[in-house]
Amino acid sequence: MATAIYSATASLDGFIAGPGGDMSLLTRFFGEDDDNQAARRLMEGVGSLLVGNRSFGGDDPNKGTDREGAFEGEYQGPTVVLTHNPPADAVEGVTFVTDLRGAVEEATRLAGDGYATVIGADVARQMIDEGLLDEVLVFYVPVFLGDGVRLFDRPGGGEVRLTRIPGETEFWCRVEK
């Protein structure tokens, strides 16, 4: 059975992208630690991506290079995009789903026994609100962005408890349900 995991790289002040979704400030840190075992295990275990529409259509700092795409172009598997407005034309390897539960079900089905990796802070928040997210993995990079897209934003929302996964050196936790 697949594990639904929200994985992101964040600045020390908690932003996964700069203003307007700009990812360029974080890219200088990608690939910096090729010995990162948590990143390697995640990448080897990804069975599908569950992506929010803003992330899917957003800023790819590697656009036009051989590192374009998810996980710096290393990921080539199925992608599920949660959107209220699916495109009229099909996109190869991408399934567009209009409701959260349907998107999670499709992404976990496609992932098999691997990870259904969530890309998009708003999708992760929605999944937490509905009790559909299993784990969170955050890689922190040494920079303060000051503004942008927060790792997790839930104005007026309550506490979400996470439990550190024993033996992990990165911030890898289970979502308490």
Q: What's the arrangement of secondary structure elements?
A:
Blueprint: E1 3-11, E2 15-17, H1 24-27, H2 37-45, E3 46-52, H3 53-56, E4 79-82, E5 94-97, H4 100-111, E6 115-119, H5 121-129, E7 135-141, E8 149-150, E9 162-164, E10 171-175
Parallel strand pairs: 1-6, 1-7, 3-4, 3-6, 4-5
Antiparallel strand pairs: 2-8, 7-10, 9-10
Comma- or semicolon-separated keywords:
177 residues, alpha/beta, Dihydrofolate Reductase, subunit A, 5 helices, RibDG_C, 5-amino-6-(5-phosphoribosylamino)uracil reductase activity, DHFR-like_dom_sf, Riboflavin_Biosynth_HTPR, Dihydrofolate reductase
Short description:
The chain is 21% helix and 28% strand. The protein has 177 residues and is of the alpha/beta class.
Structural commentary:
With 177 residues, the protein is α/β, with parallel strands linked by helices. The chain has one domain: Dihydrofolate Reductase, subunit A (3-Layer(aba) Sandwich), CATH 3.40.430. Helix content is 21%, strand content 28%. It has helices at residues 24-27, 37-45, 53-56, 100-111, 121-129, and strands spanning 3-11, 15-17, 46-52, 79-82, 94-97, 115-119, 135-141, 149-150, 162-164, 171-175. It has an 8-stranded mixed sheet with strand order 5-4-3-6-1-7-10-9. A two-stranded antiparallel sheet has the order 2-8. Strand 3, helix 3 (53-56) and strand 4 (79-82) form a beta-alpha-beta unit. The mean pLDDT is 84. GO terms for molecular function: 5-amino-6-(5-phosphoribosylamino)uracil reductase activity. One of its GO terms (biological process) is riboflavin biosynthetic process. This is Dihydrofolate reductase.
